[in-house]
Amino acid sequence: MKKMKENSVSKLLVFLLMIPIVNGLCGCKHTDDEDNIEIISGDIEGEWFENKSDNDSKLYSITNYKSNGSISYCFALANTIRSEYNTKEGSYEYDGFIITEKSTDVYTGNEQSLTYNVRYSDNYTLICYDPQNKEMLERHKIIDTYDMSVGETRTFSSGDSKINPYSFVSLDPQIVSVDKQGFFKALKRGTTFVVVYSPVGETIVRVNVTDPDNVIDDFLSLMDEPIKSVTNIYGGCFVDFSNDLWTERVYNLIDDKVEKVIFTYVNMKVFTILVNLREGTDIEKIKESFDKKYKSEGGNHIFDYKVEKAGKEIMISLNSLENSVSYRPIVKEPQASYDFSEESFLEFDGLIKMTVSQVAKQFDYTLTEENMEDGDFDIYVDDNEIFNKVMIQFDPDEDPEVITTVILVCKSSSIKQENLEGWYKDHYIDTGDPLNPYCSEGEEYYIRFKVSGNTTNVYYSTTKARR
Fold first, then answer.
1. Residue 73 needs a FRET pair 20 to 30 A away by CA distance; which of 245, 300, 304, 324 works?
2. Which residues contact 100 (CB under 8 A, 6 or more apart)?
3. Is the pTM of this model over 0.85?
4. Any idea what DSSP says for residue 27?
5. Is the dihedral of CA 308, 312, 318, 324 positive or negative?
6. How many CB atoms are located within 10 Å of the residue 308 CB?
7. Are 251 and 265 in contact (CB under 8 A)?
8. DSSP reduced 3-state for 341
9. Helix runs in 294-413, H state only
10. pLDDT, tens digit (0-9, with 9 covering 90-100), for 120-131
11. Which residues pair with 450 in a beta bridge?
12. Which residues pair with 451 in a beta bridge?
């Protein structure tokens, strides 16, 4: 990848040096007064691929300048880009020299207006100067898209006689391999790109690889994994929806079989997975495949199959009415009694008496400007047997160092208020107040319980008014 980028820089310099020589080959030319450079420009219609990768990550983007003046744009990690999946949509104008783009982020709704000064363009290469970021951009035309299945092979061909390839490079050889003769072989589900080197420069072939025999099994491997593992595989084109208990990370238009995948995560780990299949996908074929791999539980579309992953039991359910498949852990019945260690309670019991800075330092949490403006921040913990999240609240207008409320969120929905009350009854004063049943000596702070959804939260508050 580093070699490719070095080649791109060299090529960019060659183009700019050769502009006076080749100016008769393209549609129009003019002189940029600011830089005193003669500019050559032609038609820009079509899909343009830009490789934004570095040594740390693979990052690509596709800009599609359509004939009707509309534009779509996708910016994503490695193997997540598909032609119909856009992060920005809008319109563009091009006068032969300057591209003006007006777009809206499809997730946030934020509007953006950008301009690019075209330095060179032909049917294969588009070189622009980006005045917003003060950098030169090099994009290459996507000349074809290959839709292949795992194991399928094909040989490169082009109807353009000017494209006479002498080399090919796959940007993800795990998804598709290609040799120097242009022989493609699909190896793994995903989308990647092949760079075609020829006398006209670099051009791009997009390759979409599907696995008909493994439509959704890949997702099962992500159960109980860190949510960052999902992002590493499926990239940055997602939207998150959050509530007090969990966050849903939604990926749209995964491939030609899967329309949407929703990863619900709690405490930064995947807890459930919902896969929505495209209309026409044969659920019965998926069922046949599962019959060979997993233990059937009766096929009642509530729990169809039971599997084990890392010692945890997971249920798979198929819903033909909604054309979906879901994975979720088997939630055990609440235990009759709990024997929690003293340390599990004591770990967070004294936080209400600390300052904001002390708590942040203890848990190695970096406070942001947003935290200080909003007056709250959350700390996630893994090694406490009762609680998995600590929510700290303070009043930034009164005193940004004084904690007003500490909320402890229970790790399991099966831990009930009655499981916790015994410990607090032994360590705190019973107030007789059902809203604030316990308080510290001298009534410096109060403790109450609240059930949010199915999860019990423990509130430490410095005043009754802050409940």
1. 324
2. 92, 93, 94, 113, 114, 115
3. no
4. S
5. negative
6. 11
7. no
8. coil
9. 342-349, 356-362, 369-374
10. 988 899 999 999
11. 457
12. 456
